[in-house]
Amino acid sequence: MNVYSNSSHFALKYLKDIEVNISNLLIMTGDFNIRDNIWDSSFPHHSTFSDNLMTIADSFNLELLFSTHNIPTRYLDLDSRSNLVIDLIFLQSGSTELNTHSIHPDWCLFSDHAPLSVSEENIESFKFSIAKNNNEEISFIKDVSHAIKSINVLDLSDSCKLEEVTNSLASRIELTWKVNLKQVKITKHSKSWWNEKCKHTLDNYKITRSLKNWKAFKSKVKSTK
């Protein structure tokens, strides 16, 4: 169930006052517009609206799911106001098949809210690749070019000699690839455009939580894409 409750908390009042018959509800998520130190350690206060929200969640047999990393879910453009944690996820009590709640500020695009995701597990695997525009790519292209230029084409009188030459070239390219490739960890949320500069600007924001660094991160993501 997706919930949007405005600043007057109309949706919460509706769900609290009206008996809603929804059986076997697995997940409730959305923008609840409630600031509370229960889910935001940077906010010092507790809200009575949180009690209402917890009562509603309990009536659906749902439990609040805490994020794997403590960062805001909504980002504001005003220097005088801090970023907020107001988007939440509640899961069916005792859920074990869904155990990860992540916040993705790099998926915002033009929205001021970060998407949330829940997955069965942290799926991690590795691939071997040569990234674009780095020293390994330059070295690989240079070595392959040299191998091609070094091919002896003076005696290709029969298919056996041609096969011998092509196999030799293939072996040199494979060896050059193995010398220059790097092992890269990938996840189910990996993006082809994401790079170390994006990660660096996001890490800077996480440390300072300043609007300036957040804008720098969004600018870097936009230019990289």
Describe the protein in words.
α1 packs across α2 (48-59). The chain has 3 domains: 2-123, Endonuclease/exonuclease/phosphatase (Deoxyribonuclease I, Chain A, 4-Layer Sandwich), CATH 3.60.10.10; 126-184; 190-225, no CATH class. The protein has helices at residues 10-17, 48-59, 135-149, 159-180, 196-208, 211-224; strands at residues 2-4, 27-31, 62-65, 87-92, 100-103, 116-119, 124-129, 182-187. It has 6 helices and 8 strands, in the order βαβαβββββααβαα. With 225 residues, the protein is α+β, with helices and mostly antiparallel strands. Helices cover 37% and strands 17% of the residues. The radius of gyration is 26 Å and the shape is elongated. A 4-stranded mixed beta sheet has the order 1-2-4-3, covered by helices on one side. It has a two-stranded antiparallel sheet with strand order 5-6. Strands 7-8 form a two-stranded antiparallel ribbon.
